[in-house]
Structure formats: C-alpha cells, structure tokens
Design goal:
It is found in: Bacterial flagellum basal body. With 142 residues, the protein is α+β, with helices and mostly antiparallel strands. The protein has one domain (5-140). Helices cover 42% and strands 19% of the residues. It contains two helices and four strands. The strands form two sheets. It has a two-stranded antiparallel ribbon with strand order 1-2. The longest helix is centred in the C-terminal third of the chain and has 35 residues, at 106-140.
Length: 142
C-alpha cells in the first residue's frame, strides 16, 4: 500500500461522512413535520456504508484485497413505527384524534451527528498528519 493511498482512503471516508451528516440534518429538520413533500408522514432515513476496493492496488493475479475505502451504497428508510400524537384539533388528525408524526428519534439523530462529525474530523486529522510526515520526509534530503 502506497503512502499516498492514505489520502484516497481518508477522502472517501470524508465524502461518506458528509453524506451521513446531510441525512441526519434532513431527519432533524423533519422531526416535527406532520407531512413530507409527498403528502405522507416523513420517514427517518439512514445511510448504509460499503467497503470499496481501489483496484489500482491489486495485482491482476493476486487474491489479496488491497486498499479499501468506504462509500454510501444506499439510503434506506427507517422501518420503525410512526409516532401517534393525540391532538384532535389538528387539521391532519384522523377520526380518533391522532396525528401521525415522523419516526425520527431526535436523541439518536444527535448522537449520529456527533459520531459522523467526529469521524469526519478524524479523517481530516489523519490527512494532515500524513501531509506533515511527507513534508518532513522531503526535508530530510535538504
């Protein structure tokens, strides 16, 4: 594995965590919305990560896995039940007086946001450390 692959791996992780942060932001923004753009209650979304091999590392006849990065393979809807809020005066209340609200758990989303932002920052720090090491290596020959 080349030292320069660190930048590729960290870059892929930063892109994936950025997408995760966007999904979390969307979930938090719609946590109190009774309906989404399609007229149905908003369903919380989650990202699914998958390992991505970088083929330029692998030898043609080798069975070794080589360097892997990460990417978001898909964004899925959370299948947990929707929240029912008893509010008979609400215009969207059903005949029993319940309003169907999104299945967004704000506490879980905040934890997910903190986790994603820390992962992003760790990858930034890793790239900065690798850059510093490369610059110091270049300065040895001077």
């Amino acid at each position: 594995m080349s030292l320069f692959n660190i930048f590729t791996v960290a870059g892929s992780a930063m892109t994936a965590q950025s997408q995760r942060l966007n999904v979390v932001a969307s979930n938090l923004a719609n946590a109190d919305s009774a309906v989404s753009s399609n007229g149905q209650p908003y369903k919380a979304k989650q990202v699914v990560f998958v390992s991505t091999p970088f083929t330029q590392d692998a030898d043609p006849g080798s069975t070794a896995s080589g360097t892997h990065g990460v990417r978001v393979s898909k964004i899925i809807e959370n299948q947990s039940p929707m929240k029912l809020l008893h509010e008979p005066a609400h215009p969207l209340a059903n005949e029993e007086g319940y309003v169907t609200m999104p299945n967004v758990n704000v506490v879980e989303e905040m934890v997910d946001m903190i986790s994603a932002s820390r992962s992003y920052q760790n990858n930034v720090d890793m790239m900065n450390t690798a850059k510093t090491l490369l610059l110091k290596t270049l300065s040895i020959g001077q």
